[in-house]
Each structure stands twice: as C-alpha cells, then as structure tokens.
Amino acid sequence: MTAAASIFPTFFLSGFECSTFDWKDEGRRDLVAETRHLEHAQEDYALLQRLGIGVAREGIPWPFVDRGGAYDFSGIDPLIEAMRVHKVLPIWDLCHYGYPDDADPFAPEFAERFARYARACAEYVIPRLPGPHFFTPINEITFFAFIGGEWGWAAPFQKSREQRFALREALCRADIAAVKAIREVDPGARMVHIDPLVNVVAPKDRPDLEEAARRETFEDTFLAWDMIAGLARPEFGGSPEILDIVGVNCYSFGQMEYRESGPHAALPPDDPRVCPLCDLLVMAYERYRRPMLVGETSGLEEGRENWLNDVVHEALAAVARGVELHGVCLFPAVDMPDWHKGIWVHNGICDLIEDKGDLRRIPVEPYCDALRRWQRRLNRVTHLDEDPLSDPVNLADIVQAAREMETQPDRDWH
C-alpha cells in the first residue's frame, strides 16, 4: 500500500442505522425514528467527537424526502447541524433499502428518478457542510436484491432467483446514474459502494452443492461491484472511477453454509471452514485495486470488544499484504432493533435503554476502551479537535503498525 494521506480524517468511522424499507406485514419502517436518532442527534454526534471518530454513515430517507419529484430535506437539518457542531463528516446513504411508494425499481424510469433525487441531495447537503463529500447512492445492492428480490422481506417483495438478479441490475443502473448526477454538482465527490463480504461453503454431506457455494463466494458476491466498475454489463455505464471506494461489510454471519432456499446458515466461529477476514479483504482488493473501507462491522453483547480486536488484527494482516485500507467503520454507533423480532440487538457503541418514554444512550465501556487502545496503537487521536481535517490519517502509520505487529490471519474467531 502506498504511504500517503488517507481519504478520511480518522481511521475509525461509525454510522447510524437508517433503513426505510417497506417491511413485510408491517409497512413502512423508519429506523431513525425507532432509535430516536433525530431527537438525540447532538448527543449522538457528541459521542463520536469524544471517541475521536470523524466520519459517520448517515441516511437521507428517500421515501420521506421525495414528494413526487418535489423534495423536502428539512427533516435532516438536525443531523447536519449536529455534524457541523461536532466536526463529523457524513457518508450520505441515499437509499438504505427504501424507495417511495409510487416508485417501481423495475420500471424504465426508475434510474432517472433516482438520479434526479441524488442530484437534489447533493445540491442540498454540499453547501451546508465542509468537504470532502462522500455518498453511498444505494446501500448493499447485493443484500437489497436478496431481501427484496428473493426472500420477500421488503419491497418489492419478490420471491425468485430471477427476480433477485433483475432487481440487482435495476439497482446498479440507478446507482451509476446517481453517481454521475452527484458529480455534476461536485466533480470531486467520493463514492463508497458498500456490500457484504462473505464466505459460503457447502454442507459437509452435500458435495453436490460445492459449485453453487463457490459461485456465491467468488462470483455472486462481486457482481454488483463488477457492474458499477464496468467489468460486467458495461452498457450500464460503470467504471472504476464510479465504483471509487469499495466498502466491505464484515459480520460473523457472513461465514455461511449454503442452503438451497432462504438465507444460508451461519457457521459456528470455530468451524474449520471459516475463512480469515484477511483473506477475504485481499481477495476483494486484488479484484478491483481500489481504496477499501470496512464499511460495517460489529460484535454482539459482551463480544463487542473482542470482535473489534479480531477485526483490526485481520485488517492489519491485510494491510501487511498490500491492501489499501482506509478505515474501519464500527456500525452502528447506537443500538438498533432486530428487523424481524423488534428486540434490541446490542451491537452498538452505545446500548439503548428505555427510560420514561425515551431511549437513553449508555456507552459500552469495554468496547470504547478497546477502540481507544487501537487509536493509540495506530497513532490516532482519541478525541476530535476543532479541525479534524488538518491532520488526516497517515497511511504510513497504519502500514508501520501492521509490520511491527506481524499479525497473521486467523480462522478461529471464537
């Protein structure tokens, strides 16, 4: 990896759950409302400032902003003000699984409508915050295609492999159109294209499924990125510059045993078929040779501290092997409800405690302490000063730490 200034002002990033999907049997969901993030915006961003986190993934809720082509962005003003006060830069998610009720992702005009909305987003947020400016046009296109195209969890509620493929292509077309529209407003805007990085293996007693599992890991996982990069379906207009920054989401349940229908089954953490995260990061980097970011990662319950340690060890092992890694996003900053059960997941930097009709933020101290230890080890700040952009991450510090620690890939994440 070339020793140079990082794309981001801090190596550790965070973000806030902002899904707005039309959810099975429940209708439109708003995870920002469910976590009271808007009401607690100043508190939530003050937390990131205290923790030395200078970048946060944040959502602009397309279904609530778009009024048939007229846009009302006033709902995100408290977020913009909190970012301004606490010196945190956003990576704006423009479509986090949700689109307006009157939009049809399979319709020919969908990409053009999304591009108009993306341009309007850029025109609204760019003058209100300092640059650089970051956008994720459509979050997790591959996973979005599964939950909306094959599993029927969210709109458009399709339930076939063919519809999953069609939805993925439609989302890629819209994403590419949105990037071009945003860069008409700011040619220097950076894009972070985020999808899960997974390892899928066949059941031990089903060697006949080995090829299907292999395709899932080495082909299907990458197809959306391939289309955005222009490596597949070049007629969509993708290119490496449109792909820009590759954001890979890394969770324990991304190590899976193949199932012929429905979601795959998560492997136990000590399963010998688990692939070290380092190897997955190297595989993605060698495919695109673009700057990379761990776009989401978090442990659960009491395992959050150890998960952070494992992920950073694996990330540094990948850096030592030449991966241009610009950061690790601890997601979410505050807890989130399980999409299916509604119970709190306990995966955030803060837990949420119901208290007199509100949701009190309780920082998870062992998790925060582990973060601070890594910040010091990587020669990074543990608290944002008045101008975080004046001292960007020097990637040479990250490379040096990786070489000094001599971390090795580890497949046992127990």
UniProtKB/TrEMBL annotation:
Entry protein name: Family 1 glycosylhydrolase
